[in-house]
Structure formats: structure tokens, C-alpha cells
């Protein structure tokens, strides 16, 4: 978006899109693209998705880092701070300081949090590494329960189990101390996580599962299909998507995402980085996610190349000095309906109509809101979808009357006033602008019973 020519073309397109509402039916106006966001998070939100990054607590004191984080992203994943060795360094002694630092930084700014990760063969503290059998099974389940309970309601999605499948051609499980406790260890972990944090989405997360033809991909697919058939509580599958020369992006990636989604789970790209940061490959990944309705978010595994676990591969969207790379422009453009800074609309109108219609005030077409509720005994999570009417809106306010006994405990992607009875919700910085007919979502968790919620929506 730094390109002046593109900016001018884009501004013209936005103005015309607004004008188009008044002259619906004129092809010139109805083909104008929807308004484009100017940051990764805002643009993803317009597509009803999040754009996140891995965050290291130790870097939160680096203002160059936090400036980009706060400007560009609306989801974070603690890179190491929620792993087993970090959260339970000694058995039964839990340590949440660094993870809370990240969670608080994110949530106080309206960003959502992915929890990574509750059960994994790697990054185990030494006390767990040396355990086996029923003692290990109990310790693992206790760990899942304790950590998910501690952060209950603050994490939108948990990577409950990470990297449990073997590389290579077997398509089977990876050998590990956890696997040796019995093949049902994964589903046991998911059930424990659901009981501890019933409002969170529960994900299985792995790498080298991008290529639809690989045995490992098929192995995970079969497990998820089996879990769905047997009612094991799984909501989402994370594709780490660390692409490099040995494990490159492949064109059947979209097939992989859509095939998993067809099982009835959300799919998320959870640790994206690409060796060399090819703009074209980044663009393809984003387009693949946008093409799959249940692909609801993308997380890159770090902000600047210098923050990457593979820094020498320069795989991220920002240079080490914090400047945007061509891959950044490609991702933003792909999020903004597939147009690129170097590829402006082919025929931007140069002569305005002789008597241009006045641009309608934003929000003239109003907005509507709908609520879906995930209720459990004693509490619920409500996901509220705000949809703009016939014109773009630049802000929204949703009114929700909660039944008596229902009290909001936390919320994401909206500002709140009131926690019981009449509550009012307004957009945060990155999701106020919604294109005509487009939607954005926010959510909240509450104690009590939701009953039937009938929201109101006012646009600005
Ligand atoms: O990026 C993480 C790096 O800082 C750690 O040293 C490493 C330790 O296991 O984990 C890295 O993150 C991994 C993630 O947790 C799971 N998928 C692979 C990631 C890259 O190794």
C-alpha cells in the first residue's frame, strides 16, 4: 500500500463503491472492489478471519517489535511460554507469568489468543520426560486440566495436542512417552481440555501435513474423521505450514484445507513461515485460506526475520529492521480481494460522471447482528456476527439484553459496556469498518444461561 499509484486507484475505488450503492445496476459501479483494509488484522477481519503472529514475552519490551505487533495483528500465539516446560517446570508447580504477560498484552488491545500447546512429546520438563505409563497419563491429563482451567475463557483456541504423527510413509503415530501410555492419549487430552475450558475451540496441530498426498496428512485426516464420528470433542485442525526447500508449498494445499474442513472442523494456518518469503507463495497461501470458508485464521511464526526460529531463512513478512517486505504487500493485497499494489484495477475510470452522486454517509444502509451460543452447564460463549447493510459502515454498536443470572466474564474483538442486563458492544479499532453486505464477528463468555438472545445493531 506504499505505492502512490495504487493508493490513488484504491481511494477512487472506495469512493466509487460507496457511490455504487446509489446507482445500483450500473455495471461501472457494481464491479468496484470493496473497501480495503490497511493492516493485516483489519483486512483479515473484513474477511471474517484473524491474522496473528507468534509472540515471545521477552520481546515485548522492544518498542519496534510491539509497534508492529499492535498495528498489524489481531491474534497472538505465545511462541514458547505456554509449553509444558514453561507452565509446569516442576510437577504440580505451575508458572504462568510469561504466558500471562502475552495474554494480557493481547487481550487488553482486543487481540485474541491461541493457546500453544497443552500436550506434546517435545519441550517436556525433565520430570515429565522421565515418566511413563499411568503416572505419565495422569500427569499429562492434570497438566491439560490445570493450564486450560487457569486460562479458561481467555484463549479462543487451544492446540490441545501437538505433532503426534510420525514423519515419513507410515501415516501412523509418532513414538513418544505419551504415545506409549496408549493410543487413546490424544482423545483423553481433548476430553480433559473440553471439561476445563468448554468455551474454547480445541485444535490438533501438526507440521508436514500440508500436502494432501502425504501419508502423514492422511493419518491426521483419518484420526479427525474418527474423532468426529465418535464424538471426541475436536473443533479445529492447525496446519503449521513451515514451508522450506525440503517441505515446500504445494498446489494441493487448498485441497488439504477444504478436505479437513469438510469433516466439520475449522482449519487454521498456525505457524506460517516460508523460506525466502516468496511474495507469490505467501499470496497463494492466503488465497487458499480465503477460498475455504472454514479457514478462519492465519498466524505467522514471528514478526521480523530476526524474530524467527529460522532467521537465516528470512521467512517472515518484515525485515529485521521492521520494514515491510514484498511478501507483506502480497499478503495484504490477497486479503483485500486479490488486488496487488503492482496490479491496480485495469481500467480505473479517469473521468468522473458529469454529475457525480453524493457519497452516502457511512452506515446509511444500517447493520444487523445475529448471535450463536455454545451453552454448557453454568456458562456459555456467544459469538456475535455483525453484518453491514447496503452500504459500508465505519463503526457499529450492538445492544444485547442478557437474562437475569447471566454475567459476562470476558470478551474479545469488541469494547463492552455493562456485564449483565442491558449490555452494549462497540467495535475495536480493526473491525469497525465493514463493507456493504460483509460481516465481522466478536464474542464473549458469560456465566449463567443465555436463553434466546435478540441483539440490535446500530451503524455509524
Ligand atoms: O519457535 C519456537 C522456538 O523458539 C523454540 O526453541 C522451539 C522449541 O521447541 O519451538 C519453536 O516453535 C515450534 C512450535 O512450538 C511447534 N512447531 C514447530 C515450531 C518451530 O520449531
Outline the structure in words.
It is a single chain. It contains 13 helices and 17 strands. The strands form 3 sheets. Strands 1-2-3-4-5-6-8-9 form an 8-stranded parallel beta barrel, surrounded by 6 helices. Strands 10-11-16-13 form a 4-stranded antiparallel β-sheet, with no helix packed on it. It has helices spanning 4-20, 27-30, 40-46, 63-72, 84-87, 97-107, 126-129, 133-150, 185-196, 215-230, 253-261, 279-291, 326-335, and strands spanning 50-55, 75-78, 112-120, 157-162, 201-206, 236-239, 242-243, 266-274, 295-300, 367-376, 379-388, 396-401, 407-412, 415-417, 422-426, 439-447, 456-459. The longest helix has 18 residues, at 133-150. Strand 5, helix 10 and strand 6 (236-239) form a beta-alpha-beta unit. Ligand 9MR is lined by residues 79-80, 122-123, 162, 207, 240, 271, 309.
Structure summary:
This protein has helices at 4-20, 27-30, 40-46, 63-72, 84-87, 97-107, 126-129, 133-150, 185-196, 215-230, 253-261, 279-291, 326-335, and strands at residues 50-55, 75-78, 112-120, 157-162, 201-206, 236-239, 242-243, 266-274, 295-300, 367-376, 379-388, 396-401, 407-412, 415-417, 422-426, 439-447, 456-459. With 460 residues, it is α/β, with parallel strands linked by helices.
Q: Helicity, in percent?
A: 25-40%
Largest sheet: 8 strands, parallel, barrel
Cα-to-Cα separation, first versus last residue: 26 Å
- What is the overall pLDDT average? 88
The helix/strand series, from N terminus to C terminus, equals HHHEHEHHEHHEHEHEEHEHEHEEEEEEEE
Q: Give the count of helical stretches.
A: 13
DSSP strand count: 17
Secondary structure category: alpha/beta
Unreliable segments (pLDDT under 50, ≥5 consecutive)? 1-33, 339-359
| Overall body shape | globular
Q: In percent terms, what proportion of residues is strand?
A: 15-25%
Amino acid at each position: 500500500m506504499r505505492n502512490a499509484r495504487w493508493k490513488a486507484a484504491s481511494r477512487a475505488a472506495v469512493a466509487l463503491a460507496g457511490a455504487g450503492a446509489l446507482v445500483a445496476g450500473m455495471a461501472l459501479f457494481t464491479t468496484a472492489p470493496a473497501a480495503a483494509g490497511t493492516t493485516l488484522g483489519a483486512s483479515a477481519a473484513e474477511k471474517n478471519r484473524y491474522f496473528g503472529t507468534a509472540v515471545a514475552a521477552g520481546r515485548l519490551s522492544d518498542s519496534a517489535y510491539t509497534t508492529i505487533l499492535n498495528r498489524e495483528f489481531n491474534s497472538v500465539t505465545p511462541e514458547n511460554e505456554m509449553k509444558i516446560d514453561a507452565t509446569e517446570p516442576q510437577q504440580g508447580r505451575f508458572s504462568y507469568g510469561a504466558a500471562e504477560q502475552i495474554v494480557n498484552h493481547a487481550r487488553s488491545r482486543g487481540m485474541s489468543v491461541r493457546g500453544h500447546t497443552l500436550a506434546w512429546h517435545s519441550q517436556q520438563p525433565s520430570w515429565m520426560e522421565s515418566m511413563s505409563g499411568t503416572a505419565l497419563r495422569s500427569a499429562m491429563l492434570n497438566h491439560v486440566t490445570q493450564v486450560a482451567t487457569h486460562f479458561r475463557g481467555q484463549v479462543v483456541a487451544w492446540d490441545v495436542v501437538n505433532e503426534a504423527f510420525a514423519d515419513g510413509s507410515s501415516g501412523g503415530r509418532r513414538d513418544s512417552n505419551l504415545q506409549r501410555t496408549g493410543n487413546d492419549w490424544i482423545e483423553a487430552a481433548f476430553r480433559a481440555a473440553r471439561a476445563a475450558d468448554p468455551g474454547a475451540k480445541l485444535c490438533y496441530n501438526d507440521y508436514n501435513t500440508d500436502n494432501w498426498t502425504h501419508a502423514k496428512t492422511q493419518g491426521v485426516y483419518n484420526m479427525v474423521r474418527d474423532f468426529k464420528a465418535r464424538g471426541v470433542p475436536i473443533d479445529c485442525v492447525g496446519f503449521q505450514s513451515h514451508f522450506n526447500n525440503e517441505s515446500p508449498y504445494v498446489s494441493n494445499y487448498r485441497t488439504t484445507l477444504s478436505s479437513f474442513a469438510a469433516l466439520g472442523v475449522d482449519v487454521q494456518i498456525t505457524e506460517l513461515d516460508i523460506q525466502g518469503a516468496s511474495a507469490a507463495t505467501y499470496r497463494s497461501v492466503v488465497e487458499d485460506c480465503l477460498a475455504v470458508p472454514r479457514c478462519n485464521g492465519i498466524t505467522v511464526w514471528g514478526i521480523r526475520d530476526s524474530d524467527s526460529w529460522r532467521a537465516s531463512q528470512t521467512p517472515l513478512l518484515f525485515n529485521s529492521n521492521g520494514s515491510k517486505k514484498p511478501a507483506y504487500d502480497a499478503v495484504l493485497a490477497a486479503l483485500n480481494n486479490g488486488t496487488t499494489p503492482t496490479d491496480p484495477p485495469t481500467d480505473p475510470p479517469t473521468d468522473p460522471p458529469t454529475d457525480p452522486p453524493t457519497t452516502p454517509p457511512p452506515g446509511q444502509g444500517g447493520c444487523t447482528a445475529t448471535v450463536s451460543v455454545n451453552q454448557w452447564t453454568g456458562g456459555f460463549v456467544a459469538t456475535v456476527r455483525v453484518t453491514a447493510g447496503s452500504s459500508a459502515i465505519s463503526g457499529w454498536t450492538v445492544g444485547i439484553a442478557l437474562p437475569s443470572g447471566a454475567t459476562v466474564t470476558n470478551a474479545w474483538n469488541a469494547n463492552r459496556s455493562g456485564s449483565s442486563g442491558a449490555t452494549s458492544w462497540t467495535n475495536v479499532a480493526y473491525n469497525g469498518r465493514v463493507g456493504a453486505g460483509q460481516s465481522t464477528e466478536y464474542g464473549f463468555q458469560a456465566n449463567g444461561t443465555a436463553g434466546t438472545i435478540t441483539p440490535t445493531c446500530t451503524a455509524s
